[in-house]
User: What shape does this take?
Amino acid sequence: MNVMTSPVAAPVLKDKGLEIILSDGESHYFNFHWLRDNCPSSFSAATRERSFDIFHLDAAPRAKTAEVAGDALELTWEAEDHVTRFPIAWLEAYKVPQRRPDPADLPRKAWYGDHYPDVPRFSQPELLADEALRAKWIEAMLVEGFTILTDMPDSNAGLTETAEMIGQVRPTFFGDYFDVKTHINPTNTAYTASALELHTDTPAEEHAPGVQFLHCRANTVDGGNSLYADGVAVANDFRTRDPEGFKLLSEVPVPFFCEHDHYDMRSRQTIIELDQHGEVSGLTISQHMLDLSDLDQHMLDSWYPAFCRFGKMLQEEKYMMTFLMKAGECMVFDNHRIVHGRAAYTAESGDRYLRGCYTDRAEMRSTYRALVSEGRFKA
Ligand SMILES: [Fe+2]
Assistant: This one.
């Protein structure tokens, strides 16, 4: 029998879209609005934005003709004198609904209390001088959420130039920078020398700052060990140990507050944050800023014990990384993932000065993508 090789089947025009057979031999449907709006000519190479305005079409776009010419789908349009040439490869990439591939969407690696010797460390002057090294630093931030920078300049400008390698310094409602400072001052012993429990910063903000920088300028006091734990490691284990508790803490938003004479900040957040894949991406937790709960009192019968079980778990030695920060180091960590705290110290024993600021998580991902990928419009 003479089997004829069939030519590429012509696309079939429907009322609101067309069907085309692609490389898997299956027929795939594409909507006319989508095809017209994303016509390669709809974008400006200069602005790298869409210059075509679909709102200005008088009627819904509908293809008049459709044929495969070489490696492109060629369309003419009913109400427009316009030809669209769509690379077939582009249709192949979008035949199944899914997000555009994202180089910043990296799997997270959980870490535990013994992690300190293995924390990724980078020299700040080397980072400033080397773009490829900067990409490695941000990659470590995306994967592990905690890094240490060394050889920091002993200046305010040093912190700013460091943060700006990731993004703009992101103000909070208490300003662009914050200082954690204790001088030898026996008349003021009550001032900030006590222990600070594990928390994420400013949970009462609708969008709490994403990346925290803590630049250690001086640390000669007795005590004052830094405490850090990976919220992803703890929450992943909690998910296995206590599935019902995990469900409550990841699904039920609870109120946080921060109030004083001139501000009254409020938000609702889930304690455990999940990403687009349903994986744990972080935490929002702070006992001293958890607002008076307005949840159903019967629900609290379950929620509070789950919250307490999780809070106790956060403090288990298995997860707690403890060390003393040294002058000239800068801790950089994901404020939505890494909980941090401080052991008590003796204020009279020396100087302890940290200067901190934040940048955004989304901006960190943006910087990373720009460093490691070509993007849609780069030649
Ligand atoms: Fe803090």
Observations:
- Residues 199, 201, 340 surround fe (ii) ion (CB under 6 Å).
- The CA atoms of residues 323 and 346 lie 16 Å apart.
- Confidence is low (pLDDT under 50) at residues 1-7, 186-191.
